[in-house]
Specification:
Order of helices and strands: EHHEEEHEHEEH
Mean pLDDT: 93
Structural class: alpha+beta
Low-confidence stretches: none
Radius of gyration: 15 Å
Strand content: 25-35%
Number of strands: 7
């Protein structure tokens, strides 16, 4: 699998970000931001948006966290079940550990989202626990979140 090239997103990418967030099925597993939220976060030094042209993106929050904990708030591909996530995730992880001082990259995913669970486990994320009923859907239903993280030394060990 060839890695995808990622770059920092710009305001010109907002239409792609919003369209991808709104693809069918994602309303149950990932959140979505309105245009103004994307604009504010893109200009905030605490947020990092990484995009692979027309393939997908990651939104990260916590660049200024003093303890080096960076949260991947979104990881979304434009076409599911095509192997894009398996090519995009390592590019995102490498960019984070190569370009920031992050020590612990963490995320949470919806309990029962098995494709996400497999993808993150395959790329070294360790499950840390469950946040019970921590998520709220627009329809009012609640769901559990699985916390997982990847530490810099774990990532470095895979680089040989």
């Amino acid at each position: 699998l060839t890695a995808l090239t990622v770059r920092r997103a710009t305001v010109e990418d907002i239409a792609f970000l919003m369209a991808t967030e709104r693809l069918p099925g994602y309303e149950r597993t990932v959140g979505r931001f309105e245009e103004q939220e994307h604009r504010e976060q893109l200009s905030d030094p605490n947020w990092l948006y990484l995009v692979a042209e027309d393939k997908g993106f990651a939104i990260l929050q916590g660049l200024s966290n003093r303890d080096g904990n960076l949260c991947m708030r979104r990881f979304i591909v434009a076409e599911q079940f095509r192997g894009i996530g398996s090519r995009l995730l390592p590019s995102v992880i490498n960019a984070i550990f190569e370009q920031t001082r992050t020590h612990r990259l963490w995320l949470h995913y919806v309990c029962g989202n098995e494709p996400a669970a497999r993808l993150y486990a395959r790329h070294g994320f360790q499950i840390e626990g469950i946040e019970r009923e921590a998520g709220l859907r627009p329809d009012g239903t609640r769901f559990d979140l699985i916390n997982a993280s990847l530490l810099r030394p774990e990532w470095a060990a895979t680089k040989g």
